[in-house]
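User: If only I could read backbone structure tokens as easily as an amino acid sequence. Those tokens are not coordinates but codes from a learned vocabulary of shapes. Could you go through the record with me and say what the backbone is doing? Here is the record:
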Amino acid sequence: MIWYPYAQMKNLDPPVKLSHAKGVHLYTEDGLDLIDSVSSWWSVIHGYNHPEMNAAISGQLEKFAHVMLGGITHEPVQRLSAKLEEWLPADLNYCFFSDSGSVAVEVALKMALQFNTNRGSKRDTVLALEHAYHGDTFKAMEVGDDEDYHFAFGSSNEKKKGVIHIPTELPALEKAFADFGERLTCFIVEPLLQGAGGMRMYDVSFLQRARQLCDEYDVLLIFDEVATGFGRTGNRFAADLVTPDILVLGKALTGGYIGHAVTVANTRVWEGFYSDDPTHALMHGPTFMGNALACCAALKSIELFEKGDYMSKIRRIEEITRREMAGFYDPRVKEVRIMGGCVCIEVHNGADIEGFRRFARERGVFSRTFLKYMYAMVPYVIEEWELVKILTVMKEWFAR
């Protein structure tokens, strides 16, 4: 029996069973054609069954699918590391690969902690955001701030010892550093857009001030761009606007084809581990880190992003979304938020969007609302009519 995610199995609605997928369309075994409005948890930026992505993976498969990165290396992982070094801003040059976004966050937090340990520091506190979501493994849950996901693992005080959460407001940021700056190992954020915590959006000025304060108090700044990277905020990376010390990427890194993630450190962090002392090494090693198939998928995904001028596609998605949502109003709606390739309708009461998934499916759209949030994060290859259909179905729900 399959144990499905984020669901009570006793009363689970039967999952939609697919037969195949192409472009932005999911085709079910019972004959439905559904436009995917959520890009398989925000990862399938090139759509499904992309011929160049398929070829990249099948070409590598004829050589080998995977070898351990311990004591062995290979061309795909070397090429991907070199490409990321060239592609990412500033001196974000040192790539530690893993197999999921949650693990990559764990690696980033371990890097920050051990960086301080290696230099003899007694710092022991992490600063994070309210409503943060960084994954479902234990350290990632600790820096997260969403009881809807992690309530089963003790009270906030019990499980968040050594973690401080603040809102995305400058006074709170200033106060946190004034009160705790000398104790902080790092400040971890989802930059500009907080995804699973409710598609919350905030201004770049918060990140700019965070960078200044991290420099002033000698604190590492971590950007979790697992969800926000590769254009989702309307920027290629938020790290292009404000440079972190450690950057975490996943999801769209491989175009949604295969699980893979990377934690990228700057020179300062790297040098904190580069030592004659063996105890200063980062003792972490996921079995599937640097998987050759995943590296080839990531290289092709980046190539498609570049040659397809995806930033123009994302700007067009935002323009269409703003046009279609202009003037939309319903008393049940608290706020409509739009940023880059993301639109969110937040309602006052989650009960007001119960049943929307089935409603959308009956109209040819696959959607996955959660809590009080109806949203779309579409593949970047979507056509205008397909995007308009998604947005129309979202509005039609409130016009019933």
